[in-house]
Q: What sequence folds into this?
């Protein structure tokens, strides 16, 4: 004997969990459920146009039969199994001629409402709902219009929507985690680069300050005139001048005045003495301060003036 087909508002444990979470989210958001428009079977089949997306059709006893079943159990899956086992005994209609729609109880300790609907009536309702573009179709018995049952197609659509919403939420969550992890990695990379750049800038600053200190010291030494030099430095300067003078020349006098040196002496060729000093001190200005005089012994008397930076 063929068993009666059962349509449950939720399909399996996952769908039941998603349904419970959806109800809690609606309650938390204070979203009020929209009441469907109610029509009897004859008025619904005569409709040509419908503006409301949710509709409830009340069925006469000739098309549907309402029944309550006390199915106390410890779990929702066990309750469904008990109902399925007892349905052949509970249904007043032939199994092949009807579809049974069940309402999920709010808890495991209450009865289940069962609506037995003829297959021919269900097929007409499905075709009419597709024609009118109804989103959610609910069914009820004329004897109890307040007890609404989701049509099997509506239950399938809601189950699909819950699963799609859960998949989209999971994908959004995973993408958010992925973006945050990439952002964290990027920020760490930027931080490391900034730290390395900061260390490089600090090292460059230290090197610049060290160079400035060294340059400042050398600059102070370079700006010192002969009067500011120590006795040892002045002696070293005179020694440099003497070393640059050809050995055949003889100094008769030497005078340091600021940045200038005035050397008087005699030698075989005054021009060669001037050239030797100019070659030794290329950054200084070296010239004859007075005219060269020829002496009776063949030598020349000269006075050379040196101006400029010290060696």
A:
């Amino acid at each position: 004997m063929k068993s009666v087909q059962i349509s449950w508002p939720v399909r399996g444990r996952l769908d039941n969990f998603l349904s419970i979470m959806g109800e809690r989210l609606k309650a938390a958001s204070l979203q009020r459920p929209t009441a469907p428009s109610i029509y009897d079977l004859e008025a619904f089949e005569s409709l040509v146009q419908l503006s409301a997306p949710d509709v409830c059709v009340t069925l006469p006893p000739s098309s549907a039969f309402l029944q309550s079943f006390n199915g106390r159990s410890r779990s929702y899956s066990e309750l469904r199994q008990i109902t399925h086992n007892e349905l052949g005994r509970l249904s007043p209609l032939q199994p092949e001629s009807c579809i049974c729609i069940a309402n999920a109880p709010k808890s495991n300790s209450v009865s289940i409402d069962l609506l037995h609907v003829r297959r021919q009536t269900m097929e007409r309702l499905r075709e009419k709902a597709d024609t009118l573009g109804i989103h959610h179709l609910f069914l009820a018995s004329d004897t109890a219009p307040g007890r609404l049952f989701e049509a099997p197609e509506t239950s399938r659509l809601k189950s699909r929507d819950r699963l799609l919403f859960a998949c989209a939420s999971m994908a959004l969550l995973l993408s958010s985690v992925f973006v945050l992890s990439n952002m964290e990695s990027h920020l760490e990379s930027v931080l490391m680069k900034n730290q390395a750049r900061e260390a490089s800038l600090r090292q460059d600053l230290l090197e610049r300050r060290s160079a400035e200190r060294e340059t400042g010291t050398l600059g102070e030494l370079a700006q010192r005139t002969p009067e500011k030099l120590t006795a040892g430095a002045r002696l070293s300067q005179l020694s440099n001048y003497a070393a640059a003078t050809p050995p055949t020349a003889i100094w008769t006098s030497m005078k340091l005045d600021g940045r200038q040196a005035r050397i008087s002496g005699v030698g075989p060729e005054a021009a060669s003495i001037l050239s030797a000093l100019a070659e030794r001190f290329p950054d200084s200005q070296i010239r004859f301060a007075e005219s060269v005089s020829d002496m009776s012994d063949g030598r020349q008397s000269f006075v050379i003036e040196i101006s400029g930076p010290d060696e």
Remarks:
- The chain has a mean pLDDT of 78.
- The CA atoms of residues 192 and 287 lie 63 Å apart.
- Helices lie at 12-28, 41-45, 76-90, 119-132, 152-222, 231-244, 270-280.
- Residues 152-222 form the longest helix (71 residues).
